[in-house]
Amino acid sequence: MTDEYKPPPLPSPFTNTSPAPVLLTQGAEAHLYKTVSLDPSIPAALKIRPSKPYRHPILDRRLTRQRIVQEARCLVKLVREGVSVPAVLSLDWEGQGGEDGGWGGAWLLMEWIDGPVVRVVLEQWEAWLKKNSSSLDQAQLEQEEERVRGLLRRMGHALGGLHKAGVVHGDLTTSNLMLRLPATSSDPGPTGVSMEGEVVLIDFGLASQSAQDEDRAVDLYVLERAIGSTHPRSEPLFESLLQGYRESYKGATSTLKRLADVRLRGRKRSMLG
Amino acid sequence: MALLETIDIPHLPSSLPVHVALYRNVENADYLKQQLLAGNSEFEYALIDASMVLSRAHAITAIFRAINDYMNGRLKSRNVHSEIVFSFSSTNNIADSFRKFGIADSTEDLLVVKVSVAPEITHDSVAAYLEASIKGTPVPFDDETLSQISDVAKIKKFYKLGALPDPKPISAEANGVYTDDAKRRLELSLLGAIALRGS
C-alpha cells in the first residue's frame, strides 16, 4: 500500500491562488512552493511554516512567529544593505488555516531567484573532471580550476557582504547558495558547466543578527566542512573563498583568525572549565 | 473619462477585485478630505497622496496587506479602505500614517483605491463615482507615470531609508543600469518595511 504524501492545507489566502502553488521542497520546519508574486507575470517563492499539532498551540504560534519574523527581518535588512538575497514581498506570521479558519501556520512570500544552486554546479563540474581527468593536460586542468577558484572567490565576497551587514546565516551549505542566471549567458567552456551569475544567498531560516567573530567564523567553518564532504575535488580550492572573504570587509581578518581556532575544536564551543 | 483600472491581485479571491485610478492636478482635495473626515460612506475610498507612492508594486503590496488583514479579521483601523492607507506605513502609528500617506488639502496627485467588498461595488459604479467627485486629470497607474509624481526624498525619509542610493530620473545619457538598481533596491526595501510592520 502506498500512501501518497499530502502536504498540510495551504494557509489563507493561498487557497485562492490560481494556478495553485507548486510544492518544491520540504524540510522539517517549512514547505517551499513556487507561485506568482503580486504581479501575475513575475514568479515568487512561498515559504510556509505549517502549524505543528503536537506542540502546545500557544507555544507553537510563538515559536513559528518568532522564527519567520526573524528570517524576514534578516532578509529585509540585507536587501537594504545591498546584499544579494531574495527580497521579502509579503509576510503573515499568523496565517489562518484552510477550511476551519483556525491557525494554519505562517508564510513568507519572497522574490524568485532563477538559477542553479552552487551544489549542482560543483557536482556537475566534479563529474566532468572525474570523467576527463586522464585526458586533460596540465594547462587545461589549471584553466578549469581557475574557473572554480573564481566562483569560490565570488562566494567569499557574498559571505563577506553578509557578515559586514551584521547577519550570520547559521546553515551555510552549497545548497543555500545560488547563481542568479545572467540575462545573457556566455560560453560555459569545454565542461558545459556555467559558473556565471551573481551569487545569491538563500534560506535564512536559521539566520540571526550578530557581529561576533565567533558566529561569523562558525558560518565559514560549517561551509568549509560542507564543501569538504560534498565536493571533495573542490575542497583544495577553498582557500580562494577565504581570499574573496578577506577582500570583502575590514573585520574579515579577525574572523579568519578565529576560524583557525574553530577548526581545532569544531563548531561547538567547549563547555568545560 | 476616468482611466479606472480593475485589478485581480493574485492570491486574493476573485470576488474581491480592486479598482485603482491615478489623478494629477487634483483641484478639490480639500473637499474630498472633508467628506472623508465626515465619515460620508459614499466617500469610503482609499485616497492616497501619490507623491508618497514609489511604484505600482509599492501600492499593490500595501493594498494586498490591507485586504489580507481584512479577510482575516485583523483590521487596525475603521475599514479596509482606511487600512490601505495605513498599510503603506512601516510603523503602527495610524494617525501618523494618515497624515503622511492620506489625502491632504494641498494634494495634487492622488491615488484612489476601492475594493469590491460588496456586490454593488463594480467597475462601473466606481467609475461613475470618480467621474462625479474628483476634479483632476486621470493618468495611467503605471511606473512611468508614478516616477514623475513620487517624491523620493520624502519617501526615503518616512521609511528611514536615507542611506540608500538615489534612483536618478530617467535621462537620455544614462544607460539605465545604475538607476534601475537603485530604484529596485529602494522599492524592495519599501516592500520589506510594509511586510514587517507590527512584527
Please describe what this structure looks like.
The complex is a heterodimer of chains A (273) and B (199). Chain A has 273 residues and is α+β, with helices and mostly antiparallel strands. Chain A has 2 domains: 22-111, Phosphorylase Kinase, domain 1 (2-Layer Sandwich); 118-265, Transferase(Phosphotransferase), domain 1 (Orthogonal Bundle). Chain A is 40% helix and 18% strand. Chain A is built from 6 helices and 9 strands; from the N terminus they run E-E-E-H-E-E-H-H-E-E-E-E-H-H-H. In chain A, the strands form 3 sheets. A 5-stranded antiparallel sheet of chain A has the order 1-2-3-5-4. A two-stranded antiparallel ribbon of chain A has the order 6-9. A two-stranded antiparallel sheet of chain A has the order 7-8. In chain A, helix 3 runs parallel beside helix 5 (238-248) and helix 4 crosses helix 6. The mean pLDDT of chain A is 92. Chain B is α+β, with helices and mostly antiparallel strands. Chain B has a single domain, classed as CGI121/TPRKB (PF0523-like, 2-Layer Sandwich). Chain B has 8 helices and 5 strands; from the N terminus they run ββαβαααβαβααα. In chain B, strands 1, 2, 3, 4 and 5 form a 5-stranded antiparallel sheet that branches. In chain B, helix 2 crosses helix 3 (80-87) and helix 3 packs across helix 4 (94-101). The termini of chain B are far apart. The relative contact order of chain B is 0.21. The A-B interface holds A 12-14, 16-17, 35-40, 69, 72-73, 75-76, 79-80, 82, 87-94, 96, 111 and B 9-14, 56-57, 60-61, 64-65, 68, 71-72, 161, 164, 185, 188-189, 191-193, 195-196, 199. Chain B: One of its GO terms (cellular component) is EKC/KEOPS complex. Chain B: It is found in: Nucleus.
